[in-house]
Design goal:
Blueprint lengths: L19 H13 L5 H21 L12 H15 L9 H30 L6 H11 L3 H9 L2 H12 L4 H11 L3 H24 L5 H5 L13 H10 L20 H13 L6 H18 L4 H20 L6
Helix pairs in contact: 2-4, 3-4, 4-8, 4-9, 4-11, 7-13, 9-12, 9-14, 12-13, 12-14
């Protein structure tokens, strides 16, 4: 059964100029169409920013706003603002979906940037390493990271495919948020964003309890036949942060330094859960993120138990979203 189109979607007669009266309902609809959880998401963003500021101060870290690496983010932010507030004033039929999408994408990007940035001061304020314990759990589960790495290092095809699917962590949310914007599923988009935020917070909290340099640095001590996507940043960056030798965080060159839990795993589970509700894309999203999961131990230099923890993080985030009455409206 087809639903009645909203008032702002009424077709303007061909050959006539779009009057202000036809544009105004579109702006009103855009303001009213925000989901009930939007204030909670923005409140969480502001709280996260405040906590990040405190952590950065304690770790003696700053973000230099004039660094060249920040310019793409400034440009993207300006473009998002223009799309969000200027497009609805036009009569273009794709204006409202793009306006909503620009809002979703901007919030999602800010959460991602704050989460990645927060991993630096969190790492700086930790001590010791959990690699021996994480590796012991892998051994108990019968997982041999070195053998898997050797397999990938010996097959360039696995390297190429693994790199592509590992990087798809940036692609799937674009597809999901665009589908939500195009289908006017605004509550669904904000619930997905809120779940991603929760997973980010939980990951950082657990990372503070079990910092690690990862299996590549911990287990591999020979010549390097293949450098994975995540390389070996933890081994050099975490000690430098703890010694307060790093003072500037460059947003344009953020490095993945969280080993456990695996955030790629948490993201993959969240993406699959969200994509499952889109029949036309369900199996594409499942397949792509299953590939990302398979690539994570080597490309992300993760212990298998990191991925178990990452899946648990996603499960907790999804459970909290499902049981919180203000987030399930």
């Amino acid at each position: 059964m087809q639903s009645t189109p909203p008032q702002w979607a009424t077709t303007v007669p061909t050959g006539t100029a779009t009057p202000v009266a036809a544009i105004t309902p579109a702006l009103v609809e855009l303001r009213r169409s925000g989901p009930a959880i939007r204030p909670q998401v923005w409140g969480a963003m502001l709280l996260s920013l405040a906590v990040l500021t405190v952590l950065m101060h304690r770790a003696q870290l700053v973000i230099d706003p004039w660094q060249a690496g920040n310019r793409p983010f400034y440009a993207a932010g300006l473009l998002a603002l223009l799309a969000r507030f200027v497009l609805p004033r036009t009569s273009w039929r794709h204006a409202l979906p793009l306006a909503h999408f620009s809002e979703y994408a901007a919030i999602f990007t800010m959460i991602s940037l704050m989460g990645a940035t927060a991993s630096y001061p969190v790492a700086a304020l930790t001590s010791g390493y959990a690699d021996s314990r994480l590796q012991a759990i892998d051994v108990a589960m019968g997982f041999d990271w070195v053998s898997l790495y050797r397999l990938v290092a010996a097959h360039p095809v696995l390297q190429a495919v693994g790199t592509v699917v590992y990087r798809s962590i940036y692609v799937t949310p674009v597809v999901l948020l665009w589908c939500a914007a195009r289908g006017e599923r605004h509550d669904e988009a904000y619930r997905f964003i809120a779940g991603f935020w929760l997973a980010t917070i939980i990951t950082l909290l657990l990372f503070s309890l079990m910092p690690a340099i990862g299996p590549f640095s911990y287990l591999w001590h020979a010549a390097i036949p293949y450098m994975p996507e995540s390389e070996q940043w933890q081994e050099g960056l975490i000690p430098a942060l703890r010694a307060y030798q790093v003072h500037i965080v460059d947003l344009g060159h953020l490095r993945g330094i969280v080993s456990a839990p695996s955030f790629h795993t948490a993201a993959a589970v969240l993406y699959i859960a969200a994509g499952w509700r889109i029949p036309a894309l369900r199996w594409w999203i499942v397949g792509l993120n299953a590939g990302m999961l398979l690539s994570t131990p080597v490309e992300g230099t993760h212990y298998l138990v990191d991925m178990v923890f990452g899946a648990g993080v996603a499960g907790i985030a999804l459970s909290l979203m499902a049981c919180h009455p203000r987030l399930t409206a």
